[in-house]
Amino acid sequence: MLLLENKSIYYPVSWDDAADYTRAMEAMGIPHLIEDPSEGLPIQQGQLAIVFPHLPVRQYEKVRTLFNGDGEHYPD
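Structure (tokenized):
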């Protein structure tokens, strides 16, 4: 399992969409991990969170484009 330091943002997604987003992130070489509601994030049951570390601007722009906007700030 990939461990991320400095978790910065996350996007809540459905279980069904998580696999598609994961494949896209892997194809672009963007570091990420998947978390579920039991890990303390404020997401609903039936959702997963795709979590990102602090990203360089170019990678972040790709993420914003893929998800159609900014992510949620990862809680401290």
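DSSP finds two helices and four strands in the chain. Helices lie at 15-28, 57-67.
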